[in-house]
Amino acid sequence: MTETNLSPVIQEMLKSGFYPHPVQEPIKLIQTHVSYVLLTGDYAYKVKKAVNFGFLNYSTLELREHFCRQELAMNKRGAAEIYLEVLPIAQKEQNFELGGSGEAVEYTLKMCQFPQDNLLINLFHQGKLTEEMVEDLGRLVAQFHSKCPTNEYILSFGEVAKVRQAFDENYEQTAKYIGIAQTQEQFDGTKEFTDNFFATKQELLTNRIKNRWIRECHGDLHLGNICLWHDKILLFDCIEFNEPFRFVDVMYDVAFGVMNFLVGNRPDLANVYLNTYLEESGDWEGLQVLPLYVSRQAYVRGKITSFLLDDPGVPVADKEQAKVTASQYYKMALDCTKLGQGSLVMMSGVSGSGKSTVAKKVARLSNAIHIRSDAVRKHLAGVPLSERGGDELYSPEMTERTYDRLLELGILLASAGYGVILDAKYDRQSLRKPVIAAAQKHHLPLQILHCSAPEEILRDRLNSRTGDVSDATANLLTSQLASAESFTEEEKVFVKTLDTTQDLAAQLN
């Protein structure tokens, strides 16, 4: 669209004299199908287009003002540093005035402008997104979700019929791309998975409602809507215009990031993000619905990319690239539904022996779910992971509850097709025996990874430990070493012993 085809308001906003602050010229205009965004240097101004797509309606001035204010309020949750205020644009004769007192003819959302290189999707593509940053993101998203509101109305959006509606629409809108951007086999396979899920796993979705995991979430939490600004990760541009898009299962939100990492061929970072989120939130049961939502997010990306094939204004070369990109998303939408054979790994060893370090490495290598007893214990007691627990947290009764919960989650998730690592001391036969029996009962492959190190190393590690969910200290070591029970002959067939003072990669291989 040329400048002369733009509305008089947008033409005026492209002039530096329109703003009451210095601007960086030329002012840059970015358009989406629903918004204009003007970049002035320190600030960005967003104006909603007068459009009505059914799922989104900005067709009147009143609606545009309402959704500007809604967007400001909702994004204050995850990016208060960016979202500043909603300003009227008033008209006096032929002149437009930002924040003027005359009659408002438009509204704009004023935001702080940040470099596009700071978007996590760009940091990811540049190879600058570190494992530590992804862990920070996982914790942040879990903390964001813990504050997301819910009520009976919001929970109703988790009902099967409402969840299913968007899936069915996706298939209806993409059938014409069979043989062009996806194969018949892919279309049928993905649709069969979701049809079967909705037909046979209604109880799972009902439990998500019962446990209040349907919340007013972000709704579009892909890496392009997350930025690093002033050394802080911010979640911005959440869905303000459509309730069904944001009144969703928290796993719907998580699935976006998982999908981004998988499409970018970094399953290790997907594993980092997911395991960090799960440990912080305690929502390990959510893994039962995660494949449904990862498939959905990938399929939608395939659909949106496919739409470019119908646009006469898109050059032929761009259409060919869109076809390739869409086919990658459609393939992933099917691939991520196939979990395969589940398995169990039981860690073993006293505090400081390196169990969690090994478990984390194994999880990254094998895309396994890593469940730490320290986190499970605190979730059971309602103690924040960052806080130290009292003596009651380590009573025999709480220890029994913790190991019971570990086993429950292990069998649940391994039976669903996940590799699961149970990270606890498992230093006594009475703790190991139920896991071995359950694995055999459910025909699940089992391995015990026993971590060891000299006592002086154990003490040094515990004395230098900071910022960890574990509360274990070196003064517990003597009693732990004394009470640890050696493996029986029956157990030894499952055991691999690791010296954690030596090269772990070689031992794990």
Structure, explained:
Belongs to the gluconokinase GntK/GntV family. Keywords: ATP-binding, Kinase, Nucleotide-binding, Transferase. It is a single chain. With 509 residues, the chain is α/β, with parallel strands linked by helices. It has three domains: 3-113, Phosphorylase Kinase, domain 1, CATH 3.30.200; 120-335, Aminoglycoside 3'-phosphotransferase, Chain: A, domain 2; 343-508, Rossmann fold (3-Layer(aba) Sandwich). Helix content is 48%, strand content 16%. The protein is built from 21 helices and 15 strands. It has helices at residues 8-13, 61-79, 120-125, 131-146, 152-155, 160-174, 184-200, 202-210, 243-246, 250-263, 267-281, 290-307, 316-335, 355-366, 373-381, 396-415, 429-441, 455-464, 477-483, 489-492, 504-508; strands at residues 28-31, 35-39, 43-48, 83-92, 95-98, 103-112, 214-216, 226-229, 232-235, 247-249, 343-348, 369-372, 419-423, 446-452, 495-499. It has a six-stranded antiparallel β-sheet with strand order 1-2-3-6-4-5. Strands 12-13-11-14-15 form a five-stranded parallel β-sheet, with helices on both faces. β8 (226-229) and β9 (232-235) form a beta hairpin. α10 (250-263) runs antiparallel to α11 (267-281). The longest helix has 20 residues, at 316-335. The chain is globular. The termini are far apart. The mean pLDDT is 94.
